[in-house]
């Protein structure tokens, strides 16, 4: 598994933004698998710059987000719908809204919603590039330690570690939703190309475990060892220490 230290968050984010831009400009029907979270903020910032400078036609680009909190309205300030609108879709308002997919965490029938989302990805996919962050506990999407490696889109009970890490975006920890809808590990692996990014000291241990371990469900990101086309980019602080 190739882990490349690109030095800084800015360099790595710009590189990934260029890769997304290249995919979109070379193939106008591209399907992108998108992630949220702090890691991706600069990627979207650089991507918006590139889209604006080059006035790229994105009207046929289709996107699939990895996950969404359960119980938050799409308009809630911390929903991943709102995040995507703020960082990308409203900043470059030329996407076709009907092609931008985020799971509905407020669906009346959540099981039905997981099935609908998985079916949609299977129908419209495969995703050309899936971008991923990584949790301090090794999660990808919201696939927490112990998740079945064959999992499809499903409802997840968030772990204390994830609730605590994500509480920085909420008024307090009690407000963080306890569940999410997430693409499963098998859903993620269907993408043609996967790019994982990790920045900062807090991610180093997860990256080291990913580098050292074969597929094992205690570190969900290790499932990426089973995919033929994965790239991992880190900054100096998240780079694995040499043994
Ligand atoms: C977000 C997602 C999560 C995050 C991960 C890292 O859509 O699927 O796996 O990528 O929790 O979050 P940040 O980037 O906030 O450290």
From TrEMBL:
* Reactions catalysed, as given in the entry: alpha-D-glucosamine 6-phosphate + H2O = beta-D-fructose 6-phosphate + NH4(+)
EC supergroup of this enzyme: hydrolase
- NCBIfam families reported in the protein's UniProt record: nagB
Q: Which Pfam families match?
A: Glucosamine_iso
Q: Which gene encodes it?
A: nagB
Residues of the active site are 67 (proton acceptor), 137 (for ring-opening step), 139 (proton acceptor), 144 (for ring-opening step)
Q: Does the keyword Cytoplasm apply?
A: no
Q: Which domain of life is it from?
A: Bacteria
User: What keywords are annotated for this sequence in UniProt?
Assistant: Carbohydrate metabolism, Hydrolase
Pathway of this protein?
Amino-sugar metabolism; N-acetylneuraminate degradation; D-fructose 6-phosphate from N-acetylneuraminate: step 5/5
Query: Carries keyword Protein transport?
Result: no
Question: Which GO biological process categories is it annotated with?
Answer: carbohydrate metabolic process; glucosamine catabolic process; N-acetylglucosamine catabolic process; N-acetylneuraminate catabolic process
One GO cellular component term noted in the UniProt record for this chain: cytoplasm
* EC number, as in UniProt: 3.5.99.6
- Tell me the ranges covered by the Glucosamine/galactosamine-6-phosphate isomerase domain, including all copies: 19-225
Lineage of producing organism: Bacteria, Bacillati, Bacillota, Bacilli, Bacillales
Record protein name field? Glucosamine-6-phosphate deaminase
Please give the coiled-coil regions recorded for this protein: none
- Which InterPro entries did the record assign? Glc/Gal-6P_isomerase (IPR006148), Glucosamine6P_isomerase (IPR004547), Glucosamine6P_isomerase_CS (IPR018321), NagB/RpiA_transferase-like (IPR037171)
Family label:
Belongs to the glucosamine/galactosamine-6-phosphate isomerase family. NagB subfamily.
Described by its record, this protein's role is as follows:
Catalyzes the reversible isomerization-deamination of glucosamine 6-phosphate (GlcN6P) to form fructose 6-phosphate (Fru6P) and ammonium ion.
GO MF: glucosamine-6-phosphate deaminase activity; identical protein binding
